[in-house]
Design a protein that fits this description.
Number of strands: 14
Radius of gyration: 21 Å
Order of helices and strands: HEEEHEHEHEHEEEEHHHHEHEHEEH
Structural class: alpha/beta
Shape: globular
Bound molecules: zinc ion
Number of domains: 2
CATH superfamily of the largest domain: Glycoside hydrolase/deacetylase
Helix content: 40-55%
CATH topology of the largest domain: TIM Barrel
Number of helices: 12
Largest sheet: 6 strands, parallel
Strand content: 15-25%
């Protein structure tokens, strides 16, 4: 297998020399959390190390620049684009100052219906409720979109600080689920992801009541406000794109809902920022997370290009409405440099 991997790497590099393609990086947060089961956070020190390497080894482009180069069929060598999804507040507070220090452009795709929501994104809330140390009721019964969801935490209803510390490094790519809480986190996360917005919100209300949770959660996990977004967009380095209104799993909702989520977000962002919004990224972004209807709604809404979430190089022959992107993890500089050298 290793031999095959090396051969593929050689072929990719040979093709890259003849027909250059761009690497589009996908970040979510610049933040150092206690737990990061979805692997969405990059520490500020690591983000700085990535920028240091990119400034030395790559030609950093904005998404609109890349789009123009792709259309013209002339791409600078070693082109890299930085993007962020979702619209967390740390994009403004932590990422923007570093981007400015390094004069690095970036595009921020924002779930515009979540702007100013004084709550955590639902997946973070689920993580906080289930994976924080403390005591929960043993049995859970919920209704999600008319279907019953039941689980039993057994002895794991009590979860000590020591156990939580011990499993703090767990993430969803690990094959094992160390406790009943982790199994529930994964199963419920999958169900809620595919539920409609109203069903998901109702299930979350029931989950909060079950856990005895109130309040708005961790402020560090809140999305930006509209005023934050305006501030971010004032930097010449920061481009804003759409990531729907409520971050739905597009392939699981109706055609009408998809159109409302996609076109509605464009209209809302253009109203807030008083400028045209040209780019879109699909929530979750894997091939199974959107469908032909999503692609058609994105074109119909008037976007000029859209980003997905699967690895690959962006070349002229790609569909400009399904540009590949590479998820960036909390890698130290050396690991990030190795990743880049495999693709550039
Ligand atoms: Zn997203």
């Amino acid at each position: 297998m290793r031999g095959l991997g090396l051969l593929q790497g050689c072929l990719r590099r040979a093709r890259q020399r003849m027909v250059p393609g761009a690497v589009i990086l996908l970040y979510h947060r610049v933040y150092s959390p206690v737990r990061d089961p979805q692997l969405l956070c990059v520490s500020r020190a690591n983000f700085r190390a990535h920028l240091e390497i990119l400034k030395k080894k790559a030609t950093l482009l904005s998404m609109p620049q890349l789009s123009r180069f792709l259309a013209a069929g002339k791409l600078p060598r070693r082109s890299v684009v930085i993007t962020f999804d979702d619209g967390y507040r740390d994009n403004l507070e932590e990422a923007k100052p570093e981007l400015e220090n390094y004069e690095a452009p970036a595009t921020f795709f924002v779930a515009s219906g979540c702007l100013g929501m004084e709550r955590e994104f639902w997946s973070d809330e689920l993580e906080r409720i289930l994976l924080s140390p403390g005591r929960l009721p043993r049995g859970l019964e919920l209704e999600i979109g008319g279907e019953r969801f039941e689980d039993d935490l057994g002895d794991d209803r009590v979860y000590s600080e020591r156990e939580a510390d011990c499993h703090a490094g767990w993430d969803v790519t690990h094959p094992a689920r160390p406790t009943a809480r982790h199994r529930l986190y994964e199963a419920l996360g999958k169900r809620l992801r595919e539920a409609g917005r109203a069903d998901r919100e109702e299930a979350l209300r029931a989950l909060r009541a079950w856990a005895g949770e109130e309040g708005s959660g961790r402020p560090d996990y809140h999305p930006m406000t509209a005023a934050d977004l305006v501030q971010l967009s004032r930097s010449a380095l920061c481009e804003i794109g759409s990531h729907t209104l409520s971050h739905p799993h597009l392939a699981s909702i109706s055609v009408r809902e998809q159109e409302a989520e996609i076109a509605g977000s464009k209209t809302q962002l253009e109203g807030i920022l008083n400028r045209r919004i040209c780019g879109f990224s699909y929530p979750y972004g894997g091939k199974a997370d959107y469908d032909a209807q999503s692609l058609s709604s994105v074109r119909k809404a008037g976007f000029e290009w859209a980003c997905s979430n699967f690895p690959g190089l962006a070349r002229r022959e790609n569909d400009r409405f399904e540009l590949p992107r590479h998820l960036v993890r909390n890698w130290e500089g050396a690991r990030f440099a190795r990743f880049l050298s495999r693709w550039l």
